[in-house]
């Protein structure tokens, strides 16, 4: 099991002496790899193509009148408390006092979700959800609690999955699951102020046998649904970007931004990088390289010395887009509507709407994460021009929150379409719809080194799309480099005389 590295006694703190390592990418994976390699006694430098660090963690801070106002998380915004590696680094970097609850979908009874009869409050939605869910079942002789369970599971899946993915499920999470659940007392899992919802995360944690009846190809998908609707998710009070910035401050080697790698040549004894620096391109020969950039970016480069299987996984790995649009509002108008946080499932192009805590100076306004979309839904939004995209979100969201139409309510808009960003060309690897054996085979192939070139990033991990996955893969890559012996050294070691031969 992956675990943070510990100091190793040896020459200069590293097995076989210190190695010189170049890390490509200053996202979480690159920064953790650099941090751990330095702890092991190696010499590390980090090069980053953009002018920022943090990768797909991006905290946007609104400002006005020379003052910094509230912020919006346009990248990673939450951490399941069970992600032990991420929580380890938060503690190790002295950020424990930053940890706060992250309230998610359906966690606020006053939030909204759509139905055939219009928007409903979460606290009032159960009867309609159960009625619509039961109407689609061929067999309806289930207990009331079972139907309530199925209705909220279906609502959660519908809220998280892109519309195209949800439509393709064909009720695969259906009768077999309900038949098992129907024999279990669900009373302890009823939650909400009126106890008319089901705590799905707690239920599946207590009943792994029920969990196992999910179709194998949807295992990863259901994991993400449960994580995203869990009551044990956290955030960082001052913004998620404090994590990469604190990590960067602990790294002794250089972190150089504006250094875009445009080509990689792998040889037996070295890795050669072609790096664009402004208007000129330079060549650098490196002993060891850790590549943490997404494969969507890597496959646009000139790659030589890679074997065929590696090139295949680089070009075959699928990434989903994500688009986030945040409104800087004059006030947290949703609080007057009774919403204290969490998120609504808005539907349409908007999909999900989050209400971040308005815990700053009220005079500086508040942030509404107006729209969070993934996959084909994000692609549909990103194809629109920025002005049209913002207008579509504002128009659709105003049907649920008419306060947005008030003059002067929206002070500013910020957004990021990760599928269109040249440093990512996608938000994350999403291996929904794959069985466990195939997921693991792809992970291993994605992480497999090419001689002195090693790989890390969420796409190389067992937890794609999460910070946890990026950290896990970085630690694994640092382990591999620590124990790696170049081919020439292996050949020499095999042919040189032994100690007993020399003494003879």
Automatic annotation (TrEMBL):
Substrate binds at residue 78. GO terms for molecular function: L-amino-acid oxidase activity. One of its GO terms (biological process) is amino acid catabolic process. Residues 28-481 form the Amine oxidase domain. Its cofactor is FAD. The keyword Oxidoreductase applies. It comes from the Bacteria. Keywords: Oxidoreductase. FAD binds at residues 75-78, 261, 458. InterPro entries: Amino_oxidase, FAD/NAD-bd_sf, Flavin_amine_oxidase, Flavin_monoamine_oxidase. It holds the Pfam family Amino_oxidase. This is Amine oxidase domain-containing protein.
